[in-house]
TrEMBL record:
Subcellular locations according to the entry: Cell membrane
Domain Major facilitator superfamily (MFS) profile intervals: 245-470
The protein, known as: Sugar transporter
UniProt GO MF annotations: symporter activity
Keyword tags: Membrane, Sugar transport, Transmembrane, Transmembrane helix, Transport
Superkingdom assignment: Bacteria
Origin organism lineage: Bacteria, Bacillati, Bacillota, Bacilli, Bacillales
Species annotation: Paenibacillus antarcticus
Matches recorded under SUPFAM superfamilies: MFS general substrate transporter (SSF103473)
InterPro entries: MFS_2, MFS_dom, MFS_trans_sf, Na/Gal_symport
Listed GO biological process terms: carbohydrate transport; sodium ion transport
Amino acid sequence: MKPVTNFQSAQPEARSKELRKFGMKDKIGYLFGDLGNDFFFLLVSSFLMVYYTDVFHISAASVGILFLVARIWDAVADVTWGRFIDTRKASAHGKFKPWILRMSFPLVFSGILMFVQIPGMSNGFYLVYAFITYILWGTLYSTVNIPYGSMASSITSDPVERTSLSTFRTMGGVIAGLLVNVLGPLILFVDNKADANHFMMGGILFGILSLSSYIACYKMSTERIIAPDTQANQTIFKLTLKGLIRNKPLISILIISLSFMMLTLLSGAVNVYLYKDYFGNASLLSIVGLIHISAMIIAISIAKPLVARFGKKEVAAVGMLLAAVVHLSLAFIPDLTAIQFITISTIGTFGVGFFNLVVWAFVTDVIDYHEFITGLREDGTVYSVYSFARKLGQAIAGGIGGFAIAAIGYNSVNIVQNEETLNGLYRLSTLVPGLVYLIIFSLLVFVYPLNKQRTLQLSADLAAKRNERN
């Protein structure tokens, strides 16, 4: 049986003829969607752990268990909600963006609830409250993020235009990162301590910004490609599964992305304690955020020509090697001041930035390779496997972060942590990232097979196979 490729560009409904052409308004609208996501996602991933340990006085190990359970549940929620969306008929405003508008209100409200401290309650109450509100927020996040991520394919069918949407989505994340990482520490901490009232203020502020961004995304984006209500699905599951197992680029990029995601979230959580306790100044996080985002912007400007000349794998590998060398050097340089530490670590940020900018392009190559070895164009299936690996990385990182902080002896009751704990924080911020970046570099060089030459050859071979089928 000849396999059927996924639906890509069925004839739009008649109403599509009356819609405006794809343009800058769509790009900015899509940017706002990720801006709305990341205002709260970055606030939570960077500062929620310290809020739980220092305001709710929940043990770091308990927070780790909460994050682990929540991320595993989120992976299930993503798949469930994605299936639900696929079974709904498109409305007059499209199939995906109405859900962004509908669910953004309960999502933002649940986010603010996480930062509500009810005075006089027991530690057990705060633990239960944290579990309920955090898992509720994560579930509602899926109801907005899944349709947002799926919407790009319905805004336009043109590959170049879809690439521009991806670029603007990245820009939305960068802008959110700049605002959260710079303003967050200034709002949330008072005299170098996490303050319950200020965290509440921060939750409300970023909640308003998030909701406004979602509304802008809804208003400015237009879905043009409407798939039929029912589509033939003749994909053979056994062939799909066999192809996934044989897909060496997919397996290797899953391991790489899993490792990278775990480290990113672990570092985000540990860095708050590093600057608050080791360097004794949480407000420095604002400077760190501003400098690192600036480094990312510079990396964006030079990544494209570097990739065009050397290839995605090659640029990502060099970036990981640079990050590994910088962090391992920091681990063995004694008695650095905060400014010296920030200056040296910024060099490593360039390396991390290059990897971040090309990782989504790896996924495109992996999808092409799956089609090459199976004859099936299954973008959604392959992408969902990749997305699941990232969620698994988040789950493990959430657990590891809490356990690691607990293992080095962190005690939120102590105004000043003991020397062993402070040294442990420093090792978690330097030695651990250095080793993980070195492992990722090795996997890229020695395991991931699609270098520039092989990627170009894959594209040519795939084009030839498509011509044969036609």
